[in-house]
Design a protein that fits this description.
The complex is a heterodimer of chains A (250) and B (256).
Chain A: H1 2-29, H2 32-40, H3 42-74, H4 79-90, H5 93-104, H6 121-145, H7 149-157, H8 162-191, H9 194-199, H10 210-220, H11 222-246
Helix pairs in contact in A: 1-11, 2-11, 3-6, 3-8, 3-10, 4-6, 5-6, 6-8, 7-8, 8-11, 10-11
Chain B: H1 2-22, E1 31-35, H2 39-53, E2 59-63, H3 65-73, E3 80-83, H4 86-94, E4 104-115, E5 134-137, H5 142-158, H6 162-168, E6 170-174, H7 177-185, E7 191-195, H8 196-199, E8 207-209, E9 218-225, H9 233-240, H10 246-251
Parallel strand pairs in B: 1-2, 1-3, 5-6, 5-7
Antiparallel strand pairs in B: 3-9, 4-7, 4-8, 4-9
Helix pairs in contact in B: 3-4
Chain lengths: 250, 256
């Protein structure tokens, strides 16, 4: 078994290298002083703050709105709904932005009724939700499907009501998968760029998230862009670490 | 089973950028690296150059001048670099990839205000009215710098508060001028500051407010062959600065 696993690691090395080396390269190109400088600039403060706040709102909405959808999807076959949920994850970001504009832009369905969301922080959250929620829903569905129904039935025979089965059996058993979904959604929201750029615009303090600030800086000031990328990288790592260690079901 | 399918989707997403990167068609023509606002005119210029010299068609890489300069410095294959301002060109010259003596001014274009059809904006003064949604390029890119200069120039005619009132109406500072135009042409913003050459192809999809001569801001484009470029790269730069190329520039809203 250990030999077989070592073999797997050997086969996995190319991908592992592809995933890790660019980030290491990014760190190699940045200097501590530049990152420190970036952390001190108000533009980075605004962008980082906006990114963190909108990402957390997005994740909260994912859980609030995505959990019922995931539960529904986990019962029975729903190929069309599954397709609808999967599509945003395979769309190029620009398509997501254009799709959202077709709804909330000035000439869009809701936009033409007076619900103008383009250029607002709400638009940032909606763009993030559009691309991040599918990841949460998919992970949660997979986690729920993996649970053996017999466990819940056994508990019910022993007198547990539906809520108790849900609270003390379903959620704890599905939790690692749900947690992975939350982490994926958070990471995706934090990194969301394309749909935001098209749909929400790029105004410092209101719609310019860190991902957008990096894109703007990359045009003219690559050093600042790299420093901000490092800030985003560590923020994402810290948030993922925090989520892993603090979202424990009591 | 389902988890495996999910992982397959994730793996697919991971290789996507690689697939896109590989899909660039290979040609033996020149590699032109051009400011995004030059994309259309360069295609036309290349076509004219091809029919004159019987060379294969060039492949054109368009983007923000600053980002393109960085890509060239990072090793992107390029024979000719055409930038929207001197700063981007200077970066490549400083990296010793272009000889400063071969850099040529290739064209000019004026800044204009693009207005969404149906917006209640009759003149430049109306840009300062509260509630008008204005989009500009970010001040870190040439179009954004020029835009701020333009507002300052216009303040001489429309009052000292003009520039501040217009910038208070700005709902987005875009990373490039094409994004500014896109937000105006799809109707989400009321007005945007762009280049005259950007609006030529849009016809009545957009209204244009031209700037009085006294306040006009003119952008200057420069181009040069790379130091290790294909042999005919300098010839191409000569061609686009020749009298023969002038009508093409004009057709696309530039003055050459």
């Amino acid at each position: 078994m250990p030999t077989k696993n070592r073999m797997m690691l050997l086969l996995a090395l190319p991908l592992l290298a592809l995933l890790s080396l660019p980030l290491i390269g990014l760190l190699g190109r940045s200097s501590a002083s530049e990152v420190w400088l970036a952390l001190g600039s108000s533009a980075v403060h605004d962008a980082l703050g906006l990114s963190i706040i909108t990402s957390f709102i997005t994740v909260a909405l994912c859980i609030l709105l995505g959990t019922p959808l995931a539960i529904w999807l986990s019962h029975g076959q729903h190929p069309w709904t599954t397709l609808v949920v999967d599509l945003p994850t395979v769309l190029p970001p620009a398509v997501a932005g254009l799709a959202l504009l077709s709804l909330f832009g000035r000439t869009g369905w809701f936009g033409s009724q007076g619900l103008l969301l383009a250029f607002t922080t709400t638009a940032v959250v909606i763009a993030q939700l559009f691309v991040a929620a599918p990841l949460y829903v998919r992970a949660t569905v997979v986690a729920l499907n993996a649970i053996d129904d017999d466990i819940g039935h056994a508990a019910q025979i022993d007198g547990a009501d539906a809520w108790q089965v849900w609270r003390f059996i379903t959620i704890p058993l599905a939790w690692p998968g749900i947690q992975a979904g939350i982490a994926l959604a958070l990471a995706r929201a934090l990194g969301e760029f394309g749909a935001t750029a098209l749909f929400a615009g790029s105004l410092p303090g209101r719609t310019r998230t860190l991902a957008l600030a990096i894109y703007v800086a990359a045009e003219t000031d690559p050093a600042a862009a790299i420093a901000m990328s490092v800030v985003l990288l560590f923020t994402a790592m810290a948030l993922l670490f925090f989520m892993k260690n603090n979202t424990v079901v009591a | 089973m389902q988890r495996r399918r999910f992982l397959a989707i994730v793996a697919n997403l991971a290789v996507w950028p690689a697939v896109v990167a590989c899909s660039r068609t290979a040609t033996s023509g020149l590699n032109l690296t051009v400011a995004s606002s030059l994309n259309n005119v360069m295609q036309a210029l290349d076509k004219a150059y091809q029919s004159r010299t019987q060379t294969p068609s060039a492949s054109i890489q368009a983007g923000g001048s600053g980002a393109l300069a960085q890509q060239i410095i990072d090793g992107a294959a390029s024979d000719v670099f055409a930038a929207a301002d001197h700063a981007a060109m200077d970066k490549v010259v400083a990296a010793n990839l272009i000889d400063a003596s071969v850099v040529k001014v290739i064209a000019h274009t004026a800044l204009v205000v693009a207005v969404r059809p149906g917006a209640n904006l009759l003149d430049l003064a109306a840009l300062a009215t509260a509630g008008v949604k204005v989009v500009m390029a970010d001040q870190t890119v040439p179009a954004g710098k020029y835009g701020l200069t333009l507002l300052k120039n216009l303040a001489k005619s429309y009052g000292a508060d003009y520039a501040a009132n217009v910038t208070a109406n700005v709902v987005s500072y875009e990373a490039n001028v094409k994004a500014v135009l896109q937000k105006v042409s799809n109707g989400d913003a009321d007005a945007g500051i762009v280049y005259a050459s950007d609006v030529v192809s849009l016809g009545d999809k957009i209204k244009v407010l031209t700037i009085p001569a006294g306040s006009a801001v003119i952008a200057e484009y420069v181009a040069a062959p790379l130091r290790y470029a294909a042999a005919n790269a300098p010839d191409f730069v000569d061609f686009i600065t020749s009298d023969r190329a002038k009508p093409i520039w004009q057709k696309y809203g530039f003055t050459a």
